[in-house]
Amino acid sequence: MSPTPSEESIEQEISQQNVKRVSCTTVLTLAYQSLGVVYGDLSTSPLYVYKTTFSGKSSLHGNDEEIYGVLSFIFWTFTLIALFKYIFIVMSAADNGEGGTFALYSLLCRHARLSILPNQQAIDQKLSAYAMERSADTRQSFVMKSVFEKHPKFRQGLLIFVLLGTCMAIGDGILTPAISVLSAVSGVQLKITELHENHVVLISCVILVVLFSLQHYGTHRVAFMFAPIVTAWLLCISGIGIYNILRWNPHIFCALSPTYMLKFLKSTGIEGWISLGGVVLSITGVEMMFADLGHFSALSIKIAFTVLVYPSLILAYMGEAAYLSRHHEDLQRSFYKAIPEAVFWPVFIVATFAAVVASQAAISATFSIISQCCALNCFPRVKIVHTSQKISGQIYIPEVNWMLMCLCLAVTIGLRDTNMMGHAYGLAVTTVMLVTTCLMAMVMIIVWKLQIFTAVAFLVFFGSMELLYISASFCKVPEGGWIPLALSLIFLTVMYVWNYGTLQKHQFDAENKVSMNRILRLGPSLGMVRVPGIGLIYTNLVTGVPAVFGHFVTNLPAFHQVLVFVCVKSVQVPYVCEKERFLISRVGRKEHSMFRCIVRYGYKNLQQENYDFENTLVSELVQFVEKEKESGLGPITEESSREVSADTENPQL
Questions:
Q1: What is the layout of strands, in order, in the sheet containing 558-570?
Q2: How many CA atoms lie within 13 A of 307 on its CB side?
Q3: Helix, strand or coil for residue 577?
Q4: Please, what is the end-to-end C-alpha distance for the chain in angstroms?
Q5: Sign of CA dihedral 53, 59, 62, 66
Q6: Is the domain 48-113+140-499 a CATH 1.10.1610.10 member?
Q7: What predicted TM-score, i.e. pTM, was given to this entire model?
Q8: How many CB atoms neighbour CB 574 within 10 A?
């Protein structure tokens, strides 16, 4: 006879069931919320994919092989890159739960000493977020690490490569609002035929101006509407897709066979190859799945994609292809033409709102990218405004916002055509994907310690696909493709010059710092009258005394009784928690009353402007002195510096 379970075991089992239930509810809630943040751009792609693909000289044949071929390319591109590459592989390379280009670069920097950030210290590796698996290097990982460690030019080249992908992502933030809003608004011409193209452009510009003008209010007030809008949009286009399949061509499923891709290229030749620059627009926004990993969980993003986004978009593309197979004359307006008359206006309204959501996601992502670039010394310092007191990631950068608005309006007014915008958009998207593919191959070797065959297979398979689309997009450079190239060149120049100047400044400060012997010769008073108070001197150095202090000693008759050299630096982790943020040590002898305070931030940490930094620093200094007395081991100098925990009750920086 089995023993009766105790009350404790029953309660423990019930508790575990409740935890699982809460966990499932949380994941499903995050999956629903991710629809409005992550998938806005990807879900609005059907507005312009077929239109851009068939904007060239390729003509339709009676057997519809071209339509079937394009659908086959869309299906397999979407399945292989969006589903297999990003959902199954890339999202496994998170950096402490964070994704994006900088997350991959950060992983590589920590495992192979690739970082070119100044002021890096061995003690930084003791950060909890810095923890990494200490597994033995394979022969391939050891060789690759050695190459990067011995040759600075390779490290510089990798940085430029990462910045190129970042610049192209910023280009997405300019092109996404323009093409999404203009594509959505242009549908009104089907019902109001007398509406001129200039009026459509004007309406689009008004929407864009309003959108950018409202950025300083933040998105937290309307963010709750994003997920319902995108959900309604996905349900609309999937329902319309099923309707078109059943009404116009139930045999459209045959186009999923990859043989139609070969038939398409064989029948259309070079024009068909060039038209692939439009096919790649079907995966615009897939990079957001990885980049927004930190705002949600990997599981929630995967659930949202596989359960709703993927099937809805496949049905939408299939339905539009089914309609086109019976209406060859509607190539340039196939999306809105395929909508049943009875639901046209509701779908048009939802499409416009979905385009605004996609634009907002791209703008917010651009703000986040610029913020990370500033943290890594790769962009000039800009004012970062926090628009939400509860969600730290919601920020607004005034200078960047107005710059984006001007560039977005210039693209909309200058091109006035979604086809040309699509050519520019495709080149930017594929370049970012290629950068991710190359970084992932390096992560497989250096971080995951996989065999080089696996990494090369990944690189060749996905890299060849992306190079195919890049080559097709490059053929459209005269027709709008030059825009992301020009923008990327400008941003890349600014970023690299700023990074180079920052490194040169740090090198100059390090070479001209005041020697400790000179400080010791000055005596306890440092040759000045010491007055009550605490003086803070900002410096980029983590060791030694900055040259500016020598200027103070020479030219000032008096200085504060307590001197603190403050160094604010970034480290190669996404976040540094509050209790690990401050490093405090003495500089010189105890009677000098000089301290160094190193304040560490991750590349995704945001320094809030309403934070009482000075009072927190003084509080940390007091704790340091008290612990120094309690230890009874004498003053803790830079040679024996120790990490001092911050007060956990302090607000986050």
A1: 529-538, 558-570, 594-601, 582-586, 642-643
A2: 12
A3: coil
A4: 61
A5: negative
A6: no
A7: 0.86
A8: 23
**Mind listing the pLDDT tens digit for each residue in 351-404?**
999 999 999 888 988 988 898 888 888 999 888 887 766 666 678 899 999 999
Residue 566 gets the label, from left (phi > 0), alpha (psi -120 to 50) or beta, of beta
- Residues 417, 217: contact at Cβ < 8 Å? no
The tokens for 525 are 């008073």
What SS3 class is residue 397? coil
| β-pairing verdict for 582-586 and 594-601 | antiparallel
* 44, HSE (Cβ side, Cα atoms, 13 Å): 33
User: Is the separation of the CB atoms in 513 and 546 below 8 Å?
Assistant: yes
> Which token pair is 10?
């029953």
Q: Where are the alpha helices (DSSP H) in 292-417?
A: 298-304, 310-324, 334-337, 344-375, 398-415
Burial code of 334-348, b = ≥16 C-beta within 10 A, e = fewer? bbbbbbeeeebeebb
Q: What is the CA radius of gyration of the chain?
A: 28
**For tokens 């950030």, what's the residue?**
117
Question: Tokens standing for 153?
Answer: 């030019």
What ranges do the domains of the chain cover?
48-113+140-499, 514-643
Say how many residues make up the chain: 653
